[in-house]
Amino acid sequence: MSGAGDTNLSAQLTRAVARALGDGASAVLATIVEAPRGVGAKVLLEEVGGRTGTTGDAALDDALAEHARAFLASHAEARTLRVGEFAPALGEWRDARVLFERIEPEPRVVVCGAGHVGAALARLARVVGYRVTLIDDRETFVARERFPETGIELVAAPNWTDPLRELIGAGRGVSVAVVTRGHNEDEECMRAVLAARPDYVGMIGSRRRTNIVLARLRESGFDEELLSQVRAPIGLDLGAVSPEEVALSVLAEIVAQRRGGTGRPLSEWRRQK
After folding, report:
1. Do 44 and 72 fall within a single domain?
2. Which one of 42, 77, 96, 138 is at 20 to 30 Å from 268 when CA atoms are compared?
3. What is the band of 1 on the pLDDT scale with cuts at 50, 70, 90?
4. Do residues 90 and 67 touch, judged by C-beta distance below 8 A?
5. Nearest by Cα to 35 from 81, 102, 89, 104
6. How remote is the C-alpha of 43 from its chain's centroid?
7. Is the pTM of this model over 0.85?
């Protein structure tokens, strides 16, 4: 009976994970890895509140669900904690150890604009391990001959709005870099991108150029809180000059946002007095 029960739970967990990922949502898988009892018990805790599986103790299940929210906010991929570290009131479980693992959609980078910077960014993001889509309204700029490497989805779009909405979907795990050739293209992209609310939005250009586009969006009704989240000008200050260097500064900012990094030098402490 135990074997059949384990198989059934495994199937339930698999379906729940597939559903969460299909919805573009995140979840946490909590597994008891060390305890007087219940080792191997798993609970899938969905960001939207769903729960699959049990440790056999309702109080512990509730404590795991409570900590799962903090774990998702931490940007960590996995972490093992003693129950006493997040639920000290559960005396029976205080010394038990639980593995928390993040489950989320495959990270994606959508690059709007296949000029020199956009092409370099698409290639670099793919090397780093992102799923990459490169979109442009000029078919010749996203011809496969320009990108013989595998792993970069190419989209030739007569307009930016409809393809971007479809590509971004629910927005979770998606970073969008708007690196088009002009104000009008930037604005059209940004309207579609902001409506989808991806995890990261950045727009290339000088302060003057990006301010013009943001002002137009503000005048058309986009609220200030949403516009303040746009990274414009895009990227970290690396003193970048070449398209490849600019691409590196953009991807560095995307990684920092995803992982919760600061972008500051790791050696900064050596020079602090």
Report:
1. yes
2. 77
3. very low
4. no
5. 81
6. 23
7. no
